[in-house]
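[step 3/7] fold_predict: job queued, chain A
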Amino acid sequence: MTDHALHTDEQTINDLRILGKQDGRSVYEIYNRAHTRGGESLLEKMFCNPLSDKEAINRRSSIIENFARLNISFPFTSSLLDVVEKYLLTATDVRSTGNSPFSLGEKEIQSGVSGIIELTRAMKQFVDNGDLWKIEAYADEYNAILNFLSDPAFEPVLREQRKGHLPYAAITAYDTLFRNSESNKILKLLASIYLLDVYISVARTAIERGFVFPRAQEKGLCLLKLEGVYYPGLEHPVKNNISIDSSSNVIFLTGANMAGKSTFLRAISTALYVAHLGFPVAADSMEFSVMDGVFTTINLPDNLGIGASHFYAEVLRVKKMATALSSGKSFFILFDELFRGTNVKDAQEATVAVINGFATNKNSIFFISSHIVEAGESLQQLANVSFLYLPTRMSGHQPTYTYKLEQGITDDRHGMVIIRNEGILEILKKGKKAEPFDKMTNRINI
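[step 4/7] structure written:
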């Protein structure tokens, strides 16, 4: 991983549902409006390699923001790209194995040659009549396309009059040009088209969903300001605001089960992760200092392969974070229900000790959620720890949730209320017939 790449890991990718489909749609799928397989592959690669350089992040963000502002549409059909991709696949085989460039069937060669001619002419028209030249941050990619279109080797392609089938001699000459002597240039054009596809895809997502384009600031500022942030996978989200700097870079979050802690933590960390891609985020506004790494621990599995309990897996995870912090770099570190795998007394002592250690790092940001309110009370002596909670309102014996952040610590606990509401104790005591299992599982969605 280079210095310009954000450090992260598989645990974080899974926690934030970046690529997988755990519990619903992945973040990648939300942003994927690509028209080509190459565009989809490039977008996935970007999601796996977030940036950690302010200039690179803001440059990509500016390009996509301008694509959205100008409402640029993809100028090629998917079927045309499919034909061209299939045809060009043999170019690599020709160079590496020496196979004849005519190993394709005659119809496939004719379709491929015609496809590249059509693609090149469509790109020329798109560049001449479009607004790409207006996007300053896109200048390098734009000039690369212009250089291709002005290359003398492709002048015959742009002069070609597509009024009928090409003669055999012309197809043979073009085939040699496209898949042999100038194949690298054709493949670079295709790469430019895939990148164009990604920019248009993400810009379309921003338009359709009303996502905002964040602005990255220098590393080390320990800055994170979000207004109206929410997790992008929710259909009816509740938005929240949060502002963090070096004077309040440790957040201790409390709230009862189902109050929305995990969802809020995913919203914050997903926004920060996606912002490091240079992509728009699910919020009304966002400003952040670039981090060296983003690490979350929300759904930490037991490591049964090495005989590790959940608590030991948590300890190893904390050790990994401590090792990273010892480098002096800036990290975003999040733990949802830290030390849930041990008894309350040990969990309280360990939580307080670890957060005290975290709090000495003034250039990183920490989010820790916990049910142990006593730990929060012990941490109030630390000046850079802020306390937030997600409240529960009781309507009779029925808990309701606002999902809106409030300042302070809450000792809301209503596990027994939920157990009683579900009639579990009555079932156990009197043998009351339970609801059918399939009906019950359809109703409960925690």
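[step 5/7] annotate
The mean pLDDT is 88.
Residues 183-209 form the longest helix (27 residues).
exit 0
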